[in-house]
Amino acid sequence: MTARTSIHGEWSTRLAFVLAATGSAVGLGNIWRFPYMAGENGGGAFVIVYLLCVALVGLPIMMSEILVGRRGRRNPMDSLRQLASDDGRSTVWQYAGMMGILTGILILSFYSVVAGWALAYIPNAASGIFAGATAADTQAIFDDLTANPWALLFWHTLFMGMTIAVTVRGVRHGLEKAVRILMPALLVLLLIMVGYAMRIGEFEQAVAFLFRPDFSALGPQGVLAAMGQAFFTLSLGMGAIMIYGSYLPARTSIPRSAVAIALMDTAVALIAGLAIFPVVFGSMLEPAAGPGLVFVTLPLAFGEMPYGSFFAVLFFVLLVFGAWTSAISLLEPVVTWLVERLEFTRVQAALLAGGVIWLLGIGSVLSFNAWAEYTLFDRTFFQMLDDLTANIMLPLGGLFIALFAGWVMTRKTSGGELAGEPGWFYPTWRFVIRYITPVAVLAVFLNAIGLV
Ligand code: TRP
Fold first, then answer.
1. What is the pLDDT of residues 11-39, one digit of tens each?
2. Fewer beta carbons within 10 angstroms: which end of the chain, N or C?
């Protein structure tokens, strides 16, 4: 019963898993979404709540997702169903997996459009357009791009094509090799950017903005946004980490892997913040500028540095790689579901799912131009999707996974997957996942809708 294997194969080593999961976690969420969310929610207090959520909610859920995935060895829906029936529990839990698969589809549809911006910035950067640019210039470059639906559609299509192409090949070929070089390269380049931001921008003001909490500036919605960001950036709550866990060799340590992934992910986000906010304050830009923030600020730093065009091209290439390795993990759960449940081939599944997601993405493309006026609760289609998935669907999915791992699985099953750890570990994890994590998620939810 415990010796199940995935029909999709296995990672070659623990390092391969950690790198792939880090590739999933590190992406636009760190470099595009984190700064823009922190900027919109007033900085310091948002960052503190985000860090707390990573530690108390994200980490235990990440361990649970890996554990469920490795035990179930199937797509998120069927892993949950299988484990529930192994332990003699109701199989309704599988619908949490189904919701996760759906969440992944929705996220990838707008994620791909933003990744398309990063793609579009590669030829932009190569043309030398940022050299000596002012804040007004870089803002205009960004506005011109998003105002043009055909350009956005072109880059979105290219990015979805790239994502489908890797997924068609399966997990082991390509993905493993790519992240091994690209993740460290991205980190080094970001550190160079921090150096430049320190020189040309207001570094101290940026540090104060990011790390000096002013809790009066963070309402219940801001707390919810910080928790949503923790889920989004760690790829939690929809089954991406679960599916990667389903390819994990049996004897690797789950907690060690999870801690490594979360640490790297958090480091990249904070470093991205330190690269961006000095430029924001140095150039009199607005921290709350919204989704365009990174695409307007970093080009200013590139415009100042020697060989700026070269570094800009390199940066956007690496950003695309970060987004790519994340997008693959968003597509993988639905693809495995189509293969295992409906007996599609991997190629058919990737094309079908990718095609549906591509189509949905057109809504996000248009929400920056032709549909910009159509809003619901003051949000465009793109903003609705971003909000709904990150702030509601992911935390809800995470809550279900926590309840599943803590309350539905028996000690024997969850303990079996964590058997190699030091003695204190299992009782601590079990306590946190049963009491702390679900209560924290619920409290943030209820607080946001005004109940507590
Ligand atoms: N974590 C990725 C990022 O920060 C995005 C991502 C990949 C994701 N897989 C996910 C988000 C699953 C939520 C759920 O860019």
1. 888 888 888 899 999 999 999 999 999 99
2. N
Q: How many angstroms separate the alpha carbon of residue 326 from the centre of ligand 1? A: 6
Residue nearest to atom 14 of ligand 1 (CA): 235
Does residue 3 form part of some domain?
Answer: no
Q: What is the pLDDT of residues 426-451, one digit of tens each?
A: 999 999 999 999 999 999 999 988 87
Domain count, the chain: 1
Is 9 among the domain residues?
A: no
**Of 106-110, 162-166, 282-286, highest mean pLDDT:** 106-110
Residue 436 forms part of a structural domain:
yes
Ligand 1 midpoint to CA 137 (Å) = 31
- Coil, helix or strand at residue 379: strand
pTM (2 d.p.): 0.95
CA-nearest residue, atom 10 of ligand 1:
235
Q: Please list every protein residue whose CB sits less than 6 Å from any atom of ligand 1.
A: 24-25, 27-30, 107, 232-233, 235, 238, 240, 326, 329-330, 394
Angle, helices 135-147 vs 149-169, to 10°: value is 80
Q: Which domain holds residue 225?
A: 14-448
Task: State pLDDT tens for residues 348-391.
Answer: 999 999 999 999 999 999 999 999 999 998 899 999 999 999 99
What CATH number has the domain bearing residue 67?
1.20.1740
Residue 405 domain-assigned?
yes
| Full 3-state SS string of 247-275 | CCCCCCCHHHHHHHHHHHHHHHHHHHHHH
Q: Which of 37, 107, 117 to mutate to test the pocket of ligand 1 (most atoms within 8 A of CB)?
A: 107
Task: Please report, for residues 252, 438, 442, the alpha-carbon distance to residue 218 in angstroms, rounded to integers and kept in the order given.
Answer: 40, 22, 18
